[in-house]
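User: Predict the structure for this protein chain, please.
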Amino acid sequence: QVHLVESGGGLVQAGGSLRLSCAASGIPFITFSPKTIAWYRQTPGNQRELVAHVSRGGDTNYADSVKGRFTISRDNAKKTVYLQMNSLKPEDTGVYYCNTRDGLWRWGQGTQVTVSS
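Assistant: Here is the predicted structure, written as structure tokens:
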């Protein structure tokens, strides 16, 4: 089954930047590459929120709350999706997960992002 590993989170000050990575394994290229892949985040007491997604062809969409600050990208050869997060705000704090836009794969453990200020 697909194994998703999120990494790159950490503790940063408001206004700082982080680059998250989502590496998929256990699936062939032909399964990964057609999928629209999304980043989600979750905070205690809240539902998992769609942050951004990127299509097979590289078309991107962002939640209004992160538009202009975050950039999602993908490297299909590496079966990896990235999330460049700039101008971070305390409200960006949460556990960040990746999956297909439909949540088809097994959820990984996520990576914690904490923004202080």
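Residues 13 and 116 are 5 Å apart (CA to CA).
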